[in-house]
Amino acid sequence: MTKTTNMSLNTISIPESSIVNMLMDLPKSSLINIFWQVMATFDTSPLSKQEKEDVKIAKEELKKSETIRWQDIK
Predict the structure, then answer these.
(1) Are 18 and 53 in contact (CB under 8 A)?
(2) Can you give the pTM of this predicted structure?
(3) Of the candidates 2, 31, 26, which has an alpha carbon nearest to the alpha carbon of residue 14?
């Protein structure tokens, strides 16, 4: 691990394998929380026509159990 310090900027380089190992040691609930904090973005603007259609299709797929759990995506 390397650490570079600048007046207002701190940068830490960590090998990917170290991050993966740390994540693998966490409980599932923590991983889900981290996922939402890192990957999910929030948009408060009104849905477009296409977005409304996508939500409708997604709800129909959910009712038919045709969804894929995010944990199963690799």
Answers:
(1) no
(2) 0.43
(3) 2
Q: Which residue has the tokens 């190992």?
A: 21
Check: CB of residue 53 under 8 Å from CB of residue 60. no
Residue with tokens 């409980």: 27
In contact, 11 and 4? CB cutoff 8 Å:
yes
- Both tokens assigned to 32: 């889900």
Counting the structural domains of the chain, the total is 1
CA distance linking residue 59 with residue 56, whole number of Å: 5
pLDDT in tens, 18-67: 999 999 999 999 998 998 888 888 888 999 999 999 999 999 999 999 88
